[in-house]
Amino acid sequence: MRIELKLIETIESYLMGTLSGKEKEDFESQMKQNPQLKQQVDLQNQIMQGIQRFALKSNAQKAYKSYKIQSFSMRFIVISALVTGVAFGVMKLMEENPKTEIPTEYNETQTQIIFPINDTLSADANKYLEQEIFKLNTQNDTIVETRDGIVIYIPANAFNTTETEVDLLIQEATTPEDLLMAGLSTVTENGTELETGGMFYVDAYVNGKRVELAKELTVDVPASELKAGMKLYDGRKNADGEIVWTNPKPLESFLKPIEIIKLDFYPPNYADSLRSMGYSKKKFLDSLYYSFACEEIKQETQSVPVYEYVPANWNVTNNPTYEGKQLFEQNCASCHFETKDMTGPALVGARERWIKNSNEENFYKFIKNSSAVIASGDKYANQLFNKWRTVQTPQALTNEQIDEIFVWVEWVGSENKGDTLSATSSATHLNACQGINPASIKTIWNNKFNNTNLATKEFEERMPWIHKSCENAVLDLYINNLDKTLSQVDSMALKYLSGDVLEKFKYFASRGDGRVEMDNVASKKLASYYEKNRDAETKALIETQQNYRNAQGEQDLKNSNQQLESHNRNATNKSEIFENEYKKNLCKVYDELDIDKDCNNPFVATSGYTVQVTNLGWNNIDRDVFYATFNRTTTTISQNGKTSTLTYNEWSATISDFAKYDRINVYNIPVEFNSYVKINGNKGNYKYKLNADLTYETVVLAWTEDAIYFFKTSTTAGHSEIKLCKVSDNEWRNEIQNSLSSITNMSTELDYTKFMQKDQKRVNTNKEKIRLREKIEPVVFPCYERSNGINFGGT
Predict the structure, then answer these.
(1) What span, in angstroms and rounded, lies between the C-alpha atoms of 231 and 222?
(2) 3-class DSSP state for residue 171?
């Protein structure tokens, strides 16, 4: 502690009555022997009136805090000849070396240093500046702070002396008033005017005799503003006893590191965007961000086998392993496999079969609207319908998209086929980086990189622009050059940049930001650590994503199999009901027209519709009944003066609050056939045409991830408003399952409902993850292009 402050505190303690009896007795004895001390006590007593002394203490605290804040930016102008080295990094040295101490002892008899006559170092100015004297233990690392906030680090054994104690003298001129009072100039030995950022004098004595430096001292000078072009000058005493400034040296300013985990290395707006969506916990923000870990994009080619007959205009070079696959899964996978039959036929070779049995135009038309092609009388379309007993769902696809699907289909099937050709395709990397790799950020955003350039506010200021550059090479530059100043690395980065990012880094480079003090060995080891661990982090994070996707894929497969089985049940039921209804309608018409035919063995209706052939011949009545049943339209048939009418009435229903349910299944049950037809709907609206000669019941099953809902009623023509009721597990088991289990396939359908309801929470969670990732991906990667595939991540 400074001698003056120690004395002031002792006087203050005396005046406030806080000294012990022995301390008070000793102090009063000193006052009797030293009139000057008594005078100081009287003066201090006057100052302490009111709150003036407390205000002074508060100001002293603020000065220390000001040093802490402002020393991030520093500038030097002049220094005495004794100080041979200037560096930055005092706070780091205090943390790393537990032996570093702040001196607390002072020599009460040594209150002023008396300079020798005709001294070659001190000048006239020294007579007018306050002396601050610190007594140091030469065997310890020591840090002192002056009244104006200059901090000096003195390493152990820094002086040429065998003594263990040294008096360190510091004099400062950091304000215009100090300069004027001391008569200090800001002129070089060549007469050039300088802009000063502060002057100070350092000297050291043992028993009144000057000692020289054996080691460099480290000096921090606080500054509220960093100015370019500042240099360090030595002060030299001229013949007139004045100080002139000489020997300018480039000034290296060192950055102040802080704890790196307190900095923000996320992409711009990442955290704010997620907080606005209700996600605020850092653990979640980290997990989601790191789930975007990616690999460096590499251009590759691979041989993609496709059928030899594929037309040249097919888009086979646009990676059938992705585009066609996605379209297939979205539009075809519910009813078709690529290489084996399902609800519908295997699609391998389908295009070739259509071209052989019909034409290419109807191939596209059938996929887009199969009913229209069937109704047109196309022979091959009707053969497919009568074989598979189901109507192809209309698909809103372009011809080009259909081509993509069948490139994928044939690529999958080609492993079991001959006659293939090779097409070059650019490999798709589902984890290809489109910007700064989050694994790179994870690698450096930890305590390993404390006390480096990365652990500074200045580097944090660059991070949003590094993200905007979308160049991992830019980030690598800062990591691989920790021994260089930030401004040097800024200049190195310019070749990777363009536009407003380039202009920003030009500004950073011109600012002259320094570096954190560290040796080359440490910087190289950290760079090596980064390179090794970034790859390991990338691999681990991607592997975690893949394991999660695999686990979800297994669950999705179970879910898909359940849906497929339900789809097949529904198709089977629909086919059986159609056959039964067709026969019932035919029997009614035969009876009312007095036709002596077996209605359970219908004839061929047309060359396009094959039902069940047991007799030869043509019959227009069979054809009309088939059309009426297939299209579910009211139809009157006449023959030999008699008529028979098949009547179909419109039925519709609306589900209240349909949007709150994850899934709604609506079934109309022809009681006579003891089976069900599943009704497709749109936004809670459902339609069906009821055969007037049949009695129906309507059953509705719906679910959320938390509950199952149920509705059952007799079905009548017209419109119904349906309000579902939540059912308990007990009601589900003992009432609903028992009441419906007698209906063909309904028991299995109820099991399917329960399985899907239990799996719904997982499905909803994954959907939410997908939606969240799609929203945040453009923020994570500012140069974003929607990536191929879906990564669930480790959230």
Answers:
(1) 15
(2) strand
Paired with 604 in beta bridges are 618
Task: Convert the pLDDT of each residue in 732-782 to its tens digit.
Answer: 988 888 888 889 889 999 999 999 999 999 989 988 988 998 899 999 998
Dihedral-angle region of residue 183 (phi above 0 means left; psi in -120 to 50 means alpha; beta otherwise): left
Q: Which domains does the chain have, with CATH numbers?
A: 72-250 (no CATH), 301-426 (1.10.760.10), 648-744 (2.60.40)
Highest mean pLDDT among 166-180, 319-333, 375-389, 732-746: 732-746
Of the candidates 95, 76, 84, 215, the one whose C-alpha atom is nearest the C-alpha of residue 150 is 76
H runs (alpha helix) in 674-781: 729-731, 737-740, 746-780
pTM: 0.55
Rounded to an integer, what distance in angstroms lies between the CA atom of residue 241 and that of residue 238?
5
Using CA of residue 773, residue 774, residue 780, residue 785, what is the dihedral sign?
positive
Tell me how far apart the alpha carbons of residues 228 and 782 are, in angstroms, rounded to a whole number: 33
**Other residues' Cβ atoms within 10 Å of the Cβ of residue 282:** 10
- State the CB neighbour count (10 A cutoff) for residue 17: 7
Provide DSSP, 244-288. EEEEEEEPPPBP----GGGS--SPTTHHHHHHHTT---HHHHHHH
Strands 648-655 and 718-722: parallel
Q: What is the number of H-type helices and E-type strands within the chain? A: 24, 23
Facing residues of 696 across strands?
670, 715
Total residue count of the chain as it appears in this document:
795
- Tell me the C-alpha distance between 221 and 87, whole Å: 10
Tokens for 697, please give them.
Answer: 């019941």
Report whether pLDDT(314) > 80: no
The per-residue pLDDT for range 13-57, each reduced to its tens digit, is: 787 677 777 888 888 888 888 887 887 777 666 555 433 333 333
Pairing assessment for the beta strands 681-682 and 685-691 based on DSSP bridges? antiparallel
Rg of the chain over Cα atoms, rounded to whole angstroms, equals 44
The pLDDT assigned to 785 comes to: 56
Distance CA 745, CA 176 (A): 97
The C-alpha atoms of residue 517 and residue 483 are separated, in whole angstroms, by 8
SS3 638: strand
- Distance spanning both ends of the chain, measured CA to CA: 53
Q: Indicate the DSSP class of residue 156.
A: T
The bridge status of strand 199-206 relative to strand 165-173 is: antiparallel
Instruction: Determine the Cα–Cα distance for residues 420 and 310; give it in Å rounded to an integer.
Output: 10
Supply φ then ψ for residue 236, to 5 degrees. Answer: -125, 135
**Contacts of residue 138, Cβ cutoff 8 Å, sequence gap at least 6:** 156, 157, 158, 159, 161, 163, 164, 165, 166
Cβ–Cβ < 8 Å for 409, 402: no
Please give the C-alpha separations between residue 447 and each of 260, 442, 443, 522, in angstroms, as whole numbers: 6, 11, 10, 14
Q: What pLDDT is stored for residue 55 in this prediction? A: 34
446, two tokens: 């930890």
Type of residue at 50: G
Closest to 526 (Cα-Cα) out of 478, 486, 493:
478
**What's the burial of 328, exposed, middle or buried (CB within 10 Å: 0-12/13-18/19+)?**
buried
